[in-house]
Design a protein that fits this description.
Blueprint lengths: L1 E3 L8 E9 L3 H10 L6 E4 L8 H4 L4 E3 L24 E2 L5 E5 L22 H15 L26 E10 L1 H12 L4 E5 L2 E7 L6 E7 L5 E11 L2 H11 L24 E9 L14 E3 L2 E9 L1 H7 L4 E8 L7 H5 L8 H15 L7 H10 L1 H11 L27 H4 L2 E8 L8 E8 L5 E6 L4 H20 L3 E5 L1 E2 L2 E6 L32 E3 L14 H19 L1
Parallel strand pairs: 1-8, 2-3, 2-11, 3-8, 4-18, 11-22
Antiparallel strand pairs: 5-6, 6-7, 7-14, 9-10, 10-11, 12-16, 12-19, 12-21, 13-14, 15-16, 17-18, 20-21
Length: 570
């Protein structure tokens, strides 16, 4: 059942067994786990069924560190949450997302990664990963590359034990935005409150238990919810923000007695290492495993990754590589020819493009217009790829299909005469970021329409991250050459790896999991330390993030938490 919270009387108190705050994939998954099981469940969504600018504006905030997406770009306030903007073309008229579990090493305490180590293992999570595959309606829980090989889709024969191949699955977004919405509309025990924004978690005098949730609706009314169990499922930023806003009893914020809430913000920065020139153009005919394609009814793709052995040996963090074929002329980018020893290959073109667009919107031209036009001309291929990738759904450059293959669009392996079409490969690394307590979310002085303080994000790509990525780039280049693929000419920004984008909207770590309350916000059951009935279902609990797209682990942890709460309620 769905109810518009704008129609609820002010000061009304609603009782429930379980209240879930946030109707994205995690919150929806938990609500479904309780559907038909007798417990009275409320699922709060700050927005509605369709996009609403007034609701979305509640996510606005400021950035105080290095360039990073504005907070409102990292969360969608409507039923289904960020699933609505999953951009990957599944090649059947549907959009979706990429799924892969964290590697076993990602759960370990690694002496070369500060603050690493989960209180659970990959083995603990495997049964829930398998159930998450069913929820996501993706392929079987099988990530063995051999299971997905075909005659023209074989693993790259890497030499030694430094680089190997990892499979990824894809799943559709509409299972969360439509199918499960229709399912919950018919539920007898799960009620979804739309336009219901949690403003504060109110507690007893010792802040040991959440006694009520103060909720505001954009209609101007405010009401309360009293629940035996409260689960926060608002994503990596808003979850921490709500804890910090809940400061009536604990002045530093609920669960924040050790000043950990909001800290350890991580993402998956994307690094561009350079262009790989193949030894033989015919190689492209044998790399179909590394393209998104349908096999045995499942949509899959492979990526080269570092092995656990080389991570341990050289003290590196986890990282993968995506491979995209390009026309041969793409390797002759003028910026690369003019500055072969270290100049950002894409930023001048992209920055100039932004400057010109901003000026044109104001009806003017910048005084150095010819400089900007020159930058765009010299970096044209980078600009085309960037524009195609950063404007999902618009298909702005689909008239240039050979430049359009990227994270979101596959299918190149199905083309005829590929060696004539493609003469090089563009590579992008998705890398793990080391936990750092100084990468954090705090509350700013700005306030939203409810009077709640907005968030401020302070994110940095640190020296430990740069060192790991740089060495990984060298290893990939050496092992691609040894495997017979060709030469990867590495490109740096004055010796520093080039960040293609600092974020792919995988915000993690701000309410990290640890057995000790002095080192984490939640315990191994995702319960907030010191608060008996408050749990978190979000990537915010990740102590480390590996390179894996976070959604599958979010779903697995949500299912695991649901089982725990069911036992608590018995």
């Amino acid at each position: 059942m769905f109810i518009d919270a704008r129609k609820i009387a002010s000061q009304e108190i609603i009782n429930a067994d379980v209240c879930i705050v946030g109707a994205g994939p995690a919150g929806i998954t938990i609500a479904r786990e309780f559907n038909g099981r007798g417990a009275n469940v409320l699922l709060l969504e700050s927005g509605g069924i369709d996009p609403d600018p007034a609701a979305q504006a509640l996510s606005e905030g400021i950035n105080e560190g290095e360039p990073y997406p504005r907070p409102s770009a990292l969360r969608e306030r409507l039923f289904g949450g960020t699933a609505h903007v999953w951009p990957i073309d599944l090649d059947n008229g549907r959009k979706g997302v990429r799924y892969v579990p964290l590697d076993p090493i990602d759960f370990e305490k690694r002496d070369w990664v500060p603050y690493s180590g989960w209180p659970i293992t990959r083995t603990d999570l495997d049964p829930y990963y398998e159930r998450a595959h069913q929820v996501a309606q993706t392929g079987p829980y099988d990530y063995n590359p051999a299971s997905w090989e075909e005659p023209n889709a074989r693993q790259i024969p890497f030499k030694g034990n430094r680089v190997t191949t990892q499979m990824f699955h894809f799943g559709p977004l509409d299972v969360f935005t439509q199918e499960y919405r229709h399912e919950l509309e018919q539920s007898q025990n799960v009620t979804v409150l739309t336009y219901a924004t949690a403003l504060e978690l109110e507690t007893d005098a010792l802040a040991n238990r959440v006694t009520s949730i103060r909720v505001g609706a954009l209609g101007g009314n405010q009401f309360g919810i009293s629940a035996s169990v409260v689960i926060l499922a608002q994503g990596g930023l808003e979850t921490a923000r709500l804890l910090l806003l809940s400061d009536s009893v604990q002045s530093c914020g609920l669960g924040n007695g050790n000043d950990l809430v909001g800290r350890f913000l991580m993402d998956h920065p994307v690094i561009r290492p350079g262009v790989l020139t193949p030894k033989d153009r015919g190689i492209v005919d044998h790399l179909a495993l590394y393209d998104a394609r349908w096999v045995k009814g499942a949509r899959v793709i492979a990526k080269p990754v570092l092995t656990e052995a080389v991570q341990r040996q050289e003290k590196l963090m986890n990282i993968n590589t995506a491979i995209f074929p390009r026309p041969g002329l793409a390797r002759y980018n003028l910026l690369r020819m003019l500055f072969p020893n270290g100049q950002r290959p894409n930023s001048p073109a992209i920055r100039s493009n932004r400057t010109l667009l901003r000026a044109l919107k104001k009806g003017s031209l910048p005084p150095d217009v010819f400089k900007h036009l020159g930058n765009m001309l010299m970096g044209l291929d980078d600009l085309l790829i960037y524009k195609q990738w950063r404007t999902p759904g618009r298909n702005r450059f689909r008239n240039l299909p050979l430049f359009s293959y990227d994270f979101d669009h596959g299918g190149w392996s199905q083309l005829e005469n590929k060696p004539k079409k493609f003469g090089c490969f563009d590579l992008l690394h998705v890398t793990e970021q080391a936990p750092d307590p100084n990468n954090r979310l705090t509350l700013s002085a700005d306030r939203d329409v409810f009077g709640c303080r907005r968030m401020a994000v302070d994110w940095h790509f640190n020296d430990i991250d740069k060192r790991s990525v740089k060495r990984a780039m060298e290893i990939f280049a050496e092992d691609f050459a040894a495997a017979g693929l060709g030469q990867l000419k590495l490109e740096f920004d004055h010796g520093t790896p080039v960040i293609w984008t600092p974020s792919i909207h995988h915000t993690m770590g701000t309410t990290r999991m640890h057995e000790s309350p002095t080192q984490g916000v939640v315990d191994a059951d995702c319960r907030v330390h010191g608060v008996s009935n408050l749990f978190i279902a979000s990537s915010s609990v990740f102590p480390t993030g590996g390179y894996a797209n976070s959604t599958l682990t979010i779903l697995a942890l949500a299912i695991r938490l649901s089982d725990h709460v069911k036992a608590v309620l018995k």
